[in-house]
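Example 3.2
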Amino acid sequence: MVKSKVINESAYISELAIHGMQEKKGNDLVRLDLRNINSSVADYFVICHADSATQVKAIAHSVEEEIYKAIQQNPWRKEGLEHGEWILLDYIDVVIHIFRTDKREFYGVEDLWGDAEIKSYKSA
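Structure, written as tokens:
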């Protein structure tokens, strides 16, 4: 029973992140469900990109705001805020990746987790 509560919480956090991305017009939003992959580091990866560092930072701020507003939780760790090329927000079971367009193409995070179930979302 406890495991299902944790999974439901991580799914909820991932949905909040997607909403935050949509609010700031993130491009090509996807959620990778990693729960059935033995070597996974999280339950979900949520990924999007934007054309400028300014927009990447705005999306990250929006995601943090949406999650905090709903569950009063801050990321366990944040990376990349100073340059705005690839911002990572780590909520332990949900890891959010916000890329500048060229960096997303270069790193190909989705390709690294090819076994994951991928769900795409529309930008708002």
